[in-house]
Amino acid sequence: MGENLLGLITPEQINEAEAKGVIEGEKYIINLDENVKISASIVLQINKISFGNLYPWAGKWRDKSVQVGAFLPPEPGQIPNLIYQFTDELNYKIAKSTN
User: Fold this and answer.
1) Residue of 90, 43, 49 whose CA lies nearest to 62
2) How many domains are there within the chain?
3) Could you tell me the sign of the dihedral formed by the alpha carbons of 78, 62, 42, 17, in that order?
4) For 79-91, how does the pLDDT look when each residue is reduced to its tens digit (9 = 90+)?
5) Which domain holds residue 88?
6) CATH number (domain holding residue 64)
7) Which letter, b or e, does each residue of 46-81 get, where b requires 16 or more Cβ atoms within 10 Å of its Cβ?
8) Is residue 44 a contact partner of residue 18, using CB atoms and an 8 Å limit?
9) pLDDT at position 45, please?
10) Confidence band of 3 (pLDDT split at 50, 70, 90)
């Protein structure tokens, strides 16, 4: 995750700040119009709302390769396409469940 904007050091402090951000992201989702089509820009906005107070990368496409423990996330160039696939599938499932 790298350095954070609040200068938090301990995992507990970072986890608490991230949890508070997730709550803000959830509030944003809850307040979306129920007929809104989920898009990549909405996914980025949720990320920015959730983590923007903590990380400078929040709400932006990742432009560096990272490793999270033993997990290797997709390469930066793959992310937009994967997010577009995800939102298409999500919108399809939402439409199917409401019909």
Assistant:
1) 43
2) 1
3) positive
4) 999 999 999 999 9
5) 11-98
6) 1.10.3290.10
7) bbbbbbbbbbebbbeeeeeeeeeeeeeeeeeeeeee
8) no
9) 99
10) confident
